[in-house]
Amino acid sequence: MSRTLWTPAHLERLRPDPATTAPPVDLEDVARVLPDDDVWDPWPVLDPDGRIATVDGGEVWMALSAPARGHPDGRHDVARLRLLLRHGPAWTDCGHVFPDGASPGSREWSGSAVRRADGSVSVFYTAAGRRGEPRRTFLQRVMEATGRLAPAGEGVRFEPAGVHREIVRPTAGYLPADELRGGPGRIRAFRDPGWFADPADGRPYLLIAASVAGARRFDGAVGIAARRGRGWTVLPPLLVADGIHHELERPHVVAHRGRYHLFFSAHASTFHPPGRAPTGLYGFVAPTVLGPYEPLNDSGLVIANPPEQPHQAYAWVVLPDLRAVSFLDDRTSGDAAGWRPADATEARARFDGTVAPALRLALDGARSEIVGVEALVASSGSPA
């Protein structure tokens, strides 16, 4: 396999382009998925063929959630995985995926999930911190929890079938994500496991947001682990941000027309220097899942938030049908490299915390284009 570098030279090719710029979202047309809880980083449970898993005709989704109060940045300190059932634009809240105390972490961060042909489900997620820790830490562990999906009234439940296991650890040149102090954009990464089965041979992989050793702090990378036998083998990183970015979040691969498309999300504020490129979805393409990769659209940019709303959405995941799903984040306008105000009341007023309209992509070789928008949540004037 071949490591790909994402370099300043790539970003110098970045130009504003309607093909890679998301349209502004009219908030009058979007309601909250959960009225009293923030929802972010959504992902569907996938069947092995890439279709979204269904139960009683509804699509099964997961997301991170937290009570909608206080400063929005505080949601990461109490995040839990939420189970949701989607019928068109209407969402049913099915509660937390795991019972209280099931995860070995003090909170749960992003991941992915797959339902196999025998009905068993693997939930891959990040356990952050340690259960019961008196002061939160930023240890990150890649976990697997197994079980099954079952109808539960008008919704669905996850029926566990075993303990939560740490399945991948940072070896092969990755830095440990074990810091005691930190915050968004200021910690090393070993998280966000994204499941992918290679259609060429059926072998499963996990894509991982990672950090690698380097001379500079901006050492974000996309890691990968391959399933071999009963376990996972950590492989060298697929992609390294060569001194230009700190976090390549929620990495995942989509196979399309015989090529492999690697996607991840990046904040403007964690580029070097801040604001060097917009908050958005970035992508690379390769002939095999292990590379070598070249940037889409010359620079890697696939979706940028609109200039008038530079923090509009984040944490995109591209589905096999090429819809890019994200969440509505912050309505702060102005400096694209800026971030939420420190005042909790002001920050809360600007934070949306719900699923964003999906953007449909078209892929052609090393080019991509936004070609449509699809509402995933009922409008504020419609029943949810």
Give me the secondary-structure topology.
Blueprint lengths: L3 E3 L1 H4 L25 E10 L7 E2 L2 E10 L12 E8 L2 E7 L10 E9 L4 E9 L9 E15 L2 E6 L4 E4 L9 E2 L10 E8 L6 E8 L8 E9 L2 E11 L7 E8 L2 E8 L13 E7 L7 E2 L5 E4 L8 E6 L4 E8 L13 H7 E5 L2 E7 L2 E8 L10
Parallel strand pairs: 1-16, 2-7
Antiparallel strand pairs: 2-4, 3-4, 4-5, 5-6, 7-8, 8-9, 9-10, 9-11, 9-12, 13-14, 14-15, 15-16, 17-18, 18-19, 19-20, 19-21, 22-23, 23-24, 23-25, 25-26
Label this structure with key terms.
globular, Tachylectin-2, Chain A, 5-stranded mixed sheet, 384 residues, mainly beta
Structure overview:
With 384 residues, the protein is mainly beta. It has a single domain (4-374), classed as Glycosyl hydrolase domain, family 43 (Tachylectin-2, Chain A). The protein has helices at residues 8-11, 344-350, and strands at 4-6, 37-46, 54-55, 58-67, 80-87, 90-96, 107-115, 120-128, 138-152, 155-160, 165-168, 178-179, 190-197, 204-211, 220-228, 231-241, 249-256, 259-266, 280-286, 294-295, 301-304, 313-318, 323-330, 351-355, 358-364, 367-374. The strands form four sheets. Strands 2, 3, 4, 5, 6, 7, 8, 9, 10, 11 and 12 form an eleven-stranded mixed beta sheet that branches. It has a five-stranded mixed beta sheet with strand order 1-16-15-14-13. Strands 17, 18, 19, 20 and 21 form a five-stranded antiparallel beta sheet that branches. Strand 5 (80-87) and strand 6 (90-96) form a beta hairpin.
